Amino acid sequence: MISLELPFDKEREKALNKQSPTEDHCSRKITKDTIIIVDGKPAVILLTKLDVVDLFMAVKKINNFYQGSRGSGLKNEARVFGFSPRMPTRNHHDYCSISNMSIEFPEAHKKLMEWGITASDLYKKHSKEMWTDHKKWITDNIRSEWLMPKSVFSSGIVNRTSQLKYHYDRGNIENGWSCMFTLKDGIQGGDLSIPGLDVTVSLPHGSALLFNGQKILHGVTPIHRRKPGAERYTIVYYTLAQMRNCMSPADEIKRAQKIRDSRETSWLQTRAQK
Length: 274
Ligand SMILES: O=C(O)CCC(=O)C(=O)O
Ligand SMILES: [Fe+2]
Description:
There is one protein chain. By secondary structure, this protein is an alpha+beta fold. It has one domain (2-273): Double-stranded beta-helix (4-Layer Sandwich), CATH 3.60.130.30. It is built from 6 helices and 16 strands. The radius of gyration is 20 Å and the shape is globular. The protein binds 2-oxoglutaric acid and fe (ii) ion. The site of 2-oxoglutaric acid has 10 residues, from strand 8 and strand 16.
């Protein structure tokens, strides 16, 4: 493991937010297992050469992706898994739940939940201090039913060959990290540009990247398909802060039914008055 101490440049991030990353935005490229240290603390960790055969097989079975709204123009397909918080703005989804993927692609979902353990274990092994804080926060704030079994993560997303522009992640617990696995077949490029550190992190097939995507601006460098059917998947594990508002699964369903009943009653009353 290479240890690399780097300065962090917030101003550089500001200038590039929402832009499309290119290979030459950053002057340094990281390709080997590395821990980047900022202000004496681990900030980004790259691990390579993981055995991801079963994960890749599972993810390939997901054939229904949603067009993402992140970053205009470029193709952007994703599917969430794990647990979802209440979404009051989305009709019929005002309750905490397990994502639809568990119903539509149960086998893939099961495998993704299993990999939540690997994600958490790698996090614990390589950044014990951050993991311990993360663990404490979830223990104090989130019911265990809303966390992946034996993992500190509640939720995740599978991105399919999405060339994401520079962005900060949103909705995660404040001081928690994410763990992202990369799967690539017939792809050139598609690395992670981190301008605040002036670093492009190479993301080979079978790599894991640990970092705080809410604090560090990041984006995907151009993805080139080198054969028909070439794909690049990234699978990101994170903990949504909103999961702290979830009651027990049974109580969430009860609450959702109550809201629905009262909505319907008021609608029927309005109709009756006409
Ligand atoms: O695909 C990648 O390399 C980055 C994914 C990402 O940043 C995200 O899902 O928020
Ligand atoms: Fe991100």
